[in-house]
Structures are given as C-alpha cells and as structure tokens.
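Service request form, structural biology core

Requester: graduate student, group of Dr. S.
Request type: structure prediction, single chain
Budget code: on file
Notes: please return the result as structure tokens.

Sequence provided:
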Amino acid sequence: MDSSLNARWYVIQTKPYKEVFAKEQLEKRDVNCYLPVITPLTEYGRRKKSSFSRKSECYEGVPFFPRYFFAEFDVEYIHTTRIKSTPGVSNIVNFGGVPATMTGREIVELQNQIERIIPHLLAEATPKKGEHVEIISGSFEGMPAIFEAGDGDKRSILLMELLGNTLRHSIENCDFKLLK
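Core staff response, request fulfilled:
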C-alpha cells in the first residue's frame, strides 16, 4: 500500500466484468483500492458460470459503479502506465488529458454515502411477501412460485403448488426471478 504523502485517489476504468480481477491485480502491486459492491440480496435471478466446472454459483456482489473503482497511489513511485497496463484495467479516467483525482476525505465521504444508499437499494430489489416469482434453475426450473420470506443472506422461502399441495421450499436467491 502506498503511504506517500503525495498519494492521490484515481478513478480506474476496467474492462467489462473485470472490476474484481483488476482490483486484485493492483493490490498485488501494493496499490490501495476501493471497490464498492452491493451485497448478494440484490442478486435475485442472476448466476455466474464457474470456469472450473459446469456448476453455476450465485454472484457474491455487484459493483456499485460497473467498470469503475478507485485506486490510491503516488505517481512518483507507481507510474500511470504501470496502472494502465495492469490486467483488467482499461484506463485511468481523465478530463482533457488530466487524470481525475480525489482526496482521501472525498473517498471517505463517498464510502459513507454508499453505505447510506445500499439499504434502500436492497429494500427495492428484494421481492415482497406474496409477489410472484419463477424458478429459473434447479429441479423446479420453470415453475411459478410465491415469495414468502428471506431465509438468511443467500436463500429465500418460496411457496409452490405441487400435486395439489402447497409446498414451502428454501431456494438460493439466484435460482428464481421476480415476475413483472
């Protein structure tokens, strides 16, 4: 981590879906990074494919600013070309050729604002009791259901009609989607 007095925060643009990878690569180069992420509760109906197996997994989170995150470094010690050549990084955001920078105080204020906003976003993204959903993965794929309640951070309880009976079933949040 760059502890220089001249270190500034820069806005980094990544290649599509490479925010976490680019952040990890910069951290290996001792660059302090901030990637705001919305937690899994917003991930109803979204899965990612694992590159190591056929099994899909739920997303661990969604970047708050898709394709962007923040990196703190001193250009006297780590040149911008080293940052831009990092795998997953597309560019450093600039205006008129001058890199966009932020102070540490501005980053802290941004973190505080995001922490205040996320609970409201999660409340809007979470299905409400009684809303109709469709199961999109697993042995009940294609079946309609009714959202009953959350079941921890990554699962929810759904009501389904099966052979004339109402069945309560706990299912991963990424295995169903809200019907509009």
